[in-house]
Amino acid sequence: MISQRLTIIGVGLIGGSLARSLRDAGACGEVVGYGRDTGNLKLAVDLGVIDRFETDLRAAVFGADLVVLAVPLKAMDDIFAGLAGHLGRDTVVTDVGSAKARVVDAARRLGDAFTRFVPGHPIAGTEKTGVGAAISGLFERHYTILTPVDETEEGAVARVRRMWERVGAKVVSMDLEHHDRILADTSHLPHMLAFALVDYLARQDGEEPFRYAAGGFTDFTRIASSDPVMWRDICLANGPAIRGALKGYMDTLARIDRNLADGDGEALLKCFSDAKQRRDRFLSEREAAMGKAQNGVTTK
Hints:
Layout: E1 3-9, H1 13-24, E2 28-34, H2 38-46, E3 52-54, H3 57-61, E4 66-69, H4 76-83, E5 92-95, H5 100-107, E6 117-118, E7 120-122, E8 143-146, H6 154-166, E9 170-173, H7 176-202, H8 208-211, H9 215-221, H10 228-237, H11 239-262, H12 265-294
Helix pairs in contact: 7-11
């Protein structure tokens, strides 16, 4: 049993999916939800994601041995401030935020309990939002990254690691600054590009660009249907790393622009071929890893 009483602060796609997955794994007892939207919380109870809910933060974490923060990054400051002095002596706290330096700074508001805070980030999700989109198994065969700092207790890290392993995640640890740079390149930048492309086309005259958009456009821009508020918060929280990723990408676009101006087909072909080969290798490696996990070779 990972937790006798688990509190999920923010019962949406990620928080709800984690609760569902832990329940299905028989890894938790009572699950308490906290949030401001009582309609969403009542739905979470009706769907069996949580057992009950509280709209008072102190009441929500009372008696909890494990607390998971799954709220937008902008809300972290107020949540950590509200938790300070109201956690049990052995309560472990973790989060699912996408920008770890920002979260760790906010978590220092916990005071003495900061040593039992384990920064975490599951690399899984969809463009959908809300508890109605929560699914069991969302984290299976996906990485979860933990970014503990010097003050973090080893026992707390071990417990959070076990939690993610019970829902099928492959858990790794890394320095939080390195995490933020990697995620800026591989997650935050792609979302910026998808949002920017749709915004660019929407600013053109008429609906013609969308009328003739086909599968390529749909595939590329799927993540532009993600929660705008959440992604605004991520951009602001990880701004320097995202700006670095944008600069690198714009340098690449500038090189392609020069190739077009020069009519340099060979350079374009090399760029496209190299990109295709690397993506194909990425897909092959990922498929092989998933196959091993399904055959019981490794899921942790």
